[in-house]
């Protein structure tokens, strides 16, 4: 078997998997920018919104940072994978970018 992966045939956001007589390109984990294999432990560098923790890229919980990310009145922070979103608190709704009581 010829190791086609030695020639790095895959794109930057993929890793090469050598198979018998061939190869396949697999997508890197969402937490990676470039990778050497499957999963968040094989990242070359962590994607935006992720930090290297215990040898793997882990989501940053922006909602638990010391500096508040959702600063408008009656707004709550919801952590998402690699990011966050600001939503109106319960009993409030978004009217032109302001959370007003429903």
Automatic annotation (TrEMBL):
What is the source species?
Answer: Smutsornis africanus (Double-banded courser)
Top-level taxon: Eukaryota
Query: Mind telling me which SMART domains this protein's record contains?
Result: EGF (SM00181), EGF_CA (SM00179), FU (SM00261)
> What family is this?
Belongs to the CRELD family.
Q: What is this protein called?
A: CRE2A protein
Q: Which GO terms describe its molecular function?
A: calcium ion binding
Supply the InterPro entries for this chain: ECM_structural_protein (IPR050751), EGF (IPR000742), EGF-like_Ca-bd_dom (IPR001881), EGF-type_Asp/Asn_hydroxyl_site (IPR000152), EGF_Ca-bd_CS (IPR018097), Furin_repeat (IPR006212), NOTCH1_EGF-like (IPR049883)
Which keywords does the record carry? Answer: Disulfide bond, EGF-like domain, Repeat, Signal
Domain EGF-like residues, every copy: 59-98
Q: Which SUPFAM superfamilies match?
A: EGF/Laminin
């Amino acid at each position: 078997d010829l190791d086609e992966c030695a020639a790095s045939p895959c794109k930057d956001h993929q890793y090469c998997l050598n198979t018998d007589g061939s190869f396949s390109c697999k997508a890197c984990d969402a937490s990676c920018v470039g990778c050497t294999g499957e999963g968040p432990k094989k990242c070359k560098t962590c994607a935006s919104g992720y930090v290297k923790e215990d040898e793997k890229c882990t989501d940053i919980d922006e909602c638990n940072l010391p500096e508040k990310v959702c600063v408008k009145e009656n707004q709550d922070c919801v952590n998402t994978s690699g990011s966050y979103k600001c939503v109106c608190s319960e009993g409030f709704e978004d009217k032109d970018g302001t959370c007003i009581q429903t």
